[in-house]
Design brief:
The protein is mostly beta strands and 139 residues long. Helices cover 8% and strands 68% of the residues. The chain contains one helix and eight strands, in the order E-E-H-E-E-E-E-E-E. It has one helix at 20-30; strands at residues 2-6, 9-15, 36-53, 58-80, 83-93, 99-119, 125-129, 134-138. Strands 1, 2, 3, 4, 5 and 6 form a six-stranded antiparallel β-sheet that branches. The chain has a two-stranded antiparallel sheet with strand order 7-8. The longest helix is centred in the N-terminal third of the chain and has 11 residues, at 20-30.
């Protein structure tokens, strides 16, 4: 992974074989990003995506292996209990142009990933909401 900062915008390249979620976490900690918006695209060979079941309050996960275009990766950086917190979603397209998407748990790059992180001056924490079963923004 390499990156360059332009004021409140960080441009990132994540390389073949690198795992996106861990690299974004590493970067957010290194650059002390407490609030930000993420947008990316690229190519991946392995992904683990999830879907939150609102009735059971559990995530269902599935692993995808093959050649995929990252047609959209979006999310945000915030904090929870003063620790970096990532919330990422991804849409992937396979060789037959079928789309798969969900909450991003893991994404291994097969080609490259081009990412933009807009850093917002401030901090927004999260709290666990027992009613919905998710970590939500705390205002």
């Amino acid at each position: 992974m390499e990156f360059k900062r332009f004021n409140d915008m960080i441009v990132v390249r994540i390389d073949r074989g690198e795992e996106v979620v861990s690299k974004v976490m590493e970067l957010a900690k290194k650059e002390n990003i407490q609030l930000g918006v993420i947008s990316a695209l690229g190519a991946a060979g392995k992904a683990t995506v999830g879907l939150f079941n609102t009735e059971t309050k559990q995530y269902q996960k599935t692993e995808l292996n093959g050649e995929y275009e990252i047609t959209n990766l979006t999310g945000n950086i915030s904090t929870m209990n003063d620790e970096t917190y990532l919330h990422l979603h991804v849409t992937l397209s396979d060789e037959e142009y079928r789309a798969y998407g969900g909450h991003l748990n893991e994404l291994v790059i097969s080609g490259t990933c081009e990412m933009f992180i807009q850093v917002i001056d401030g901090q927004l924490d999260r709290r666990f909401d027992e009613e919905v079963g998710l970590n939500v923004f705390k205002f």
